[in-house]
Amino acid sequence: MTETQSFFTDGEAYERMMGRWSRTAGEVFLDWLHLPQGLRWADIGCGTGAFTQLLVDRCAPKEVHAVDPSADQIAFARTTPAAKTVDFRVGGAQSLPFGDREFDVVAMALVITFIPDPAKALAEMTRVVKPGGTIGTYVWDFTNGGSPQQPLREAIEAAGVTVTHMQGHENSRREALDRIFKAASLDDVTTRMIEIDVSYSDFDAYWTSQTALANTTVQYLRSMPATEVERVKAYLRDHLATDQSGRIAYKARASAAKGRVRS
C-alpha cells in the first residue's frame, strides 16, 4: 500500500472501532459545508464507506465516486448499502483515477494525516473539481489529543510505554490544514474544530471496540505482557469519564477545513 498502513485493510474491524465516530463528526462536517443537493461528489480515502453512506443519505447527490488505496477496504465498502448508488474503486489520493473538472465537491474524511504528500493530494483534488467547486476535509486532532483513541493511548503510556505518533500527525492541527489549503491556492479557505461525544454502554463495549483494529496504538498493546495489559485496563477503569447513567463518555475533536476552487 502507498498511502495507508496495512492495518487499515480490515474493514470490519475498522468499522467497529471508528465507523460511528466518523459518521458523527461527518454529520457536523456536512452541515458546515452547507451545499445544495444534486451535486457530483468524490470521496477520497473512503475506507469502509462510513462517510460515503452519510453523504448519500444527507446530501442527495447526483453522483458519488469513492476511492481508497486498500482493496480490502473497498471490498468491504461494496457490501454496504451505499454500493447500490456509489462507484467504489481502488485508487490513491495522490493520483486520482478521474479526469479534470469532473466533480462539484471532493471530500476527504479522516485521511489527510496518512497521506505522504498532502500538497500533492490537494493538487489532485483541485484538478478534478470544477471551478467554483468545493474541497473539504476533517481529521482527528491527534496532535492535541483529540482522537477517540486518546484515553487508550494515555493508559498505555501510564504503563511505561511511549506511544509515538504516526508520521503525518502534525497535519491534524487546524493551523496545518489552513496552511495546506491556502498553499493549494483555494479561495475562501475556512477552518473549524468539530467536537463530538464518544460513548459506550460499559467497559467491555469500550475495550472490544477500541482494540478491534491492530492500528499503531493497539499494536503497542498487543506486544505487552498480559500482566501489563491488565494494568492498562485497570488504569482505564479508573480514569475513563462516565456520564450520569454510568456510560463511558468523553469528548473527541477533529480539525476541519474547506475551500473553493478558483474560477
Description of the structure:
The chain is of the alpha/beta class and about 260 residues long. It has a domain at about 5-145 and about 165-195 and about 250-260: Rossmann fold, CATH 3.40.50.150. Helix content is about 40%, strand content about 25%. The protein contains nine helices and seven strands; from the N terminus they run H-E-H-E-H-E-E-H-E-H-H-E-H-H-H-E. The chain has helices at about 10-35, 50-60, 70-75, 120-130, 150-160, 175-185, 205-210, 215-220, 225-240; strands at about 40-45, 65-70, 85-90, 105-110, 130-140, 185-200, 250-260. It has a seven-stranded mixed beta sheet with strand order 3-2-1-4-5-7-6, with helices on both faces. Strand 2 (about 65-70), helix 3 (about 70-75) and strand 3 (about 85-90) form a beta-alpha-beta unit. Helix 1 runs parallel beside helix 2 (about 50-60). The longest helix is centred in the N-terminal third of the chain and has 23 residues, at about 10-35. The two termini are about 35 Å apart. Mean pLDDT is about 90; it is low at about 1-5.
Sum up the structure in keywords.
Rossmann fold; 7 strands; disordered N terminus; about 260 residues; about 40% helix; alpha/beta
Any chance you could write out the topology, listing elements then pairs?
Layout: H1 11-33, E1 40-44, H2 50-59, E2 63-68, H3 71-77, E3 86-90, E4 103-109, H4 118-128, E5 129-140, H5 150-158, H6 174-183, E6 187-200, H7 203-210, H8 216-222, H9 226-239, E7 248-260
Parallel strand pairs: 1-2, 1-4, 2-3, 4-5
Antiparallel strand pairs: 5-7, 6-7
Q: Roughly what fraction of the amino acids lie in strands?
A: 15-25%
Strand order of the largest sheet: 3-2-1-4-5-7-6
What is the name of the CATH class of the domain at 6-147 and 166-197 and 252-260?
Alpha Beta
Count of helical regions: 9
SS elements, strand count: 7
Q: What is the makeup of the main sheet?
A: 7 strands, mixed
The backbone outline, from C-alpha atoms, is globular
Classified in CATH, the superfamily of the domain at 6-147 and 166-197 and 252-260 is Vaccinia Virus protein VP39
Alpha-carbon Rg, integer: 18 Å
CATH fold assignment of the domain at 6-147 and 166-197 and 252-260: Rossmann fold
Helix and strand string, N-terminal first? HEHEHEEHEHHEHHHE
Please estimate the helix content.
Answer: 25-40%
Structural class: alpha/beta
